[in-house]
Amino acid sequence: MDYYATLGLQRNASDAEIKKAYRSMAMKYHPDRGGDEKKFKEISQAYEFLSDPQKKQIIDLGGDPNGQSGMGGGQGPFEFHFNQGNMHDIFNNFGFGFNQRTMRRNKSLNINVEITLEDVLQGKDIDAEVGIPGGRNKMITIRVPPGIESGQQIRYEGMGDDSIPGIPAGDLHVNIFIKLHPLFKREGDSLIYEKTISVWEALLGGSISVQTLGGKSIDIIVPPGTQPETVLSCRGEGLPNMRNRMRGNLLIKIKVAVPRNLSSDQQKRIAQLKDEF
């Protein structure tokens, strides 16, 4: 499999480009979002290999991290297999100075975890059961930090496959996905909430009550003459930033409900009012 092509990348792609492509494609093909499960597994494997410096080095030299193919696609004078015996010679000949012990290790594992927007706000510890090749399971506590974004990956060194004794255990890669929220939409560190008010509240202004993602009720002032699609901001009621933990804003998008089924008398009075403007 061409791991770069799987992620839609050129072979000279940077680490940042690899991560960005993985996040985009993982969101698109995630099975819980109606995506192709087979394609999603291919994407996850490609990212697992290309995000590991040692495995990426093997791929860039034309090999397969699974140890099933060699340089040149198995054709021509460079045909060989990456087995334990010749791996040491190959990398020494290229001047990398790796030895067999550093190149051999158990496989890294990938698991997917789905969390809520409330979990993003507070952070969460999740107990997960990880299947190890050979039929074993082990429990691990996944610490989800506040502010994490959908598609981000948490890496646990040495928590992957350990079925082959005598060599280091692989890593565990936890892919985080966030469920859609019925009320709030995420935009970076900000949260967007749509609030419908009456046409009279839009015309005359007033105070409206809004519940935050954390469950707190806050009062927002609506200025007189507020137009539909106006955005009111409530500072510090959004999501925390992973780097500095400062919270973004709650952005309240105003929708205006126009009354229906007015009586003829009501229509006349509104028409009279209209003539005054």
Brief write-up:
The protein contains nine helices and eleven strands. The protein has 277 residues and is α+β, with helices and mostly antiparallel strands.
Descriptive overview:
The chain is of the alpha+beta class. The protein folds into two domains: 3-114 and 151-178, DnaJ domain (Helix Hairpins, Orthogonal Bundle); 184-260, Urease metallochaperone UreE, N-terminal domain (HSP40/DNAj peptide-binding domain). The chain contains nine helices and eleven strands. The strands form four sheets. The chain has a four-stranded mixed beta sheet. A hairpin with a 2-residue loop joins strand 6 (184-187) and strand 7. Helix 2 (15-29) runs antiparallel to helix 3. The longest helix has 15 residues, at 15-29. The termini are far apart. Mean pLDDT is 83; it is low at 68-102.
CATH architecture of the largest domain: Orthogonal Bundle
Q: Whole-Å distance between the termini?
A: 70 Å
Largest sheet entry: 4 strands, mixed
CATH topology of the largest domain: Helix Hairpins
Structural class: alpha+beta
The largest beta-sheet arranges its strands as: 6-7-11-10
Shape: elongated
Classify the beta-strand content into a percent band: 25-35%
User: Any idea what the CATH superfamily of the largest domain is called?
Assistant: DnaJ domain
Q: Report the radius of gyration as a whole number of Å.
A: 27 Å
Mean pLDDT: 83
- Helix amount: 25-40%
Pick out the low-confidence regions: 68-102
**Total number of β-strand segments?**
11
SSE pattern, N- to C-terminal:
HHHHHHEHEEEEEEHEEEEH
